[in-house]
Amino acid sequence: MTFADVVASALDVDPAHVTDEAGRDSLASWTSMRHIQLIVTLEEAYGLSFDYEEIADARTVRDVRDVLRAKGVEV
Amino acid sequence: MSDDLAAVRTRWQEIARTGERPVISIGFLASYTIDPVLPYLGVALHDAGLPASCHTGPYNQIVQQCLDDSSPKTDVLVVAPRFEELGDDLMTAVDAALSAARRRGSFLVIVLPAVPEERAYGHLDDGRAAGTAATAHAVREEVRALLADRPDAWVVDAEQAVRAVGTSKAHHAAMFKFAKIPYTEAVFHELAAQLAGVLRAVYGATPRVVVLDGDSLQGMKNPSEFDGQLEQIHASGARLALRAGPENVDALWEKLSAELPVFTTELVDASVTDCRPVQEQLAALAQDMGVPTESAVLLSWPVDLRRSGLLDRLPAFETAPRRDRRQVERTVSLADFVAGLNVEVDLQPVGPDSAAKVVEVVSRAKDFTLGTEQLDLTEPGREVFAVRVRDRFGDYGISGAVAISGEGVVDVFSLSCVVLGKGVQDLVLRQLPGAAVFRYRKTPHNQITAAFLKDAGVVVEEIS
């Protein structure tokens, strides 16, 4: 499963909509609860943990990608 | 396991898209964010033929919502309190839930709270009568005794769910800080399995006919053990039938009568001994005995009564034993309860120490907010106040913000959901200096706040 597939699955959107610019302001389905689902799905998929600031500050797909890269995940 | 959990959550999204008509409605009230349980429970009930609609109440407002009769009425009311949020008031929440469920005609499920991880006396806690563990266990047993064997209420156990997952994998500190979710997905999955088991017993097809598989009983060992199980089946009220192939039918009856003292031919209401496939025999027996096919359960040797579903029965209304218990009549009003929280609100101009927190609170406020998500603290001509809240449960710190211009225009009024349901908004209104008009631009999130302000009788102005 690709990064886009994981994000799309958690946010219930088409993977084509998972662009770096897409975020909580532009994707209607990226609600507070979906944000939580996104975080736990990423944690499960990549076997890592997000800390509070990483959860709170992730507002776009690019932010999420940056967090994963900082943790050594190639996405 | 994690792949399985993600797959369940995806299935729940797919099920939701089908617009399946629910057969039961479930309301959740918790002292924490319980939403993660919904996908797992929803899928389990869907697979059990019990599609459900689920509604979660606001965070940590169990008593308030139970006392408020305008809260949604649901077939099932699930109440999940934790010691960490409610402390000594946990039994108050349980009593309020019992009373609310009775008034609304809901089946009540209380989630017994897990014993807190943090212990007041550290390593010596377990040996102290006033320790966290002793107190928690006593309250848990009080709740269980209050509800045990009732036909209109049941308990499931968060402690059991935590133990099943393992303490080290049961909590997610960052997620609790971010969204007040105290448990991991694995714990919610376990909790959902317990809830689904109870609701299947209440609303699902209950086994009403037990069909003994005569062929398998030919090889029966330990007849005395099966004798006891037959007694249990008989006591459960289920009727007994027998199926077998056509061979050795006479020998089978002889064996059962000889080896099982409880077994008599009078005990068996119907029997089929022919060449038809087992499922056809079951359907025929069910029809003969006037029950749906799904209410007939086949019991083969070796017998596992727990798996048979025969034990998934709640006591009948007329036979359920009643325990002596405290009166749970509604003795306190919502206003009394809120007044008893001793809420204190403090408004202070935002300074360097509080600026970041105020911006964060405003950006995250979704349930009670009037103004912008992106608060600009440098905007000239207006003053921003940080709202600090505390009550008898503790100090919540900066929990909101209000901004007012020199002309008395208030365009930011946001409160964190953590402090809602305590009358904080009324106290802020009373303390806000010089507010002439509350101005807002309509968004999906500010209608509740606008309605509150209109009800409060202040001047409200919607701009386009």
Could you name the key traits of this structure?
heterodimer; A: 75 residues; mainly alpha; Non-ribosomal Peptide Synthetase Peptidyl Carrier Protein, Chain A; 4 helices; 53% helix; B: 464 residues; alpha/beta; 5-stranded parallel beta sheet; Enzyme involved in methoxymalonyl-ACP biosynthesis (chain B); SGNH_hydro_sf (chain B); ACP-like_sf (chain A); Acyl carrier protein (chain A)
Main sheet properties of chain A: none
Rg of chain A, alpha carbons: 11 Å
CATH fold-level assignment of chain A: Non-ribosomal Peptide Synthetase Peptidyl Carrier Protein, Chain A
Q: Biggest interface: chains and residue counts?
A: A-B, 19 and 22 residues
Say how many strands of chain A there are: 0
Question: Which residue ranges of chain B are poorly predicted, with pLDDT under 50 across at least 5 consecutive positions?
Answer: 317-330
β-strand amount of chain A: under 5%
E-strand count of chain B: 16
Describe this structure in words.
Chain A: This is Acyl carrier protein. Chain B: InterPro entries: SGNH_hydro_sf. Chain B: It comes from Lentzea atacamensis. Chain B: This is Enzyme involved in methoxymalonyl-ACP biosynthesis. The complex is a heterodimer of chains A (75) and B (464). Chain A is mostly helical. Chain A has a single domain, classed as Non-ribosomal Peptide Synthetase Peptidyl Carrier Protein, Chain A. Chain A is built from four helices and no strands. In chain A, helix 1 runs antiparallel to helix 2. Chain B is elongated, with a radius of gyration of 28 Å. About 3% of the residues of chain B have low confidence. In chain B, helix 1 crosses helix 2 and helix 7 packs across helix 9. In chain B, strands 10, 11, 12, 13, 14, 15 and 16 form a seven-stranded mixed sheet that branches. Chain B has a five-stranded parallel sheet with strand order 2-1-3-4-5, sandwiched between helices. Chain B is of the alpha/beta class and 464 residues long. Chain B starts with a helix and ends with a strand. Chains A and B meet through helix 2 and helix 3 of A and helix 1 and helix 8 of B.
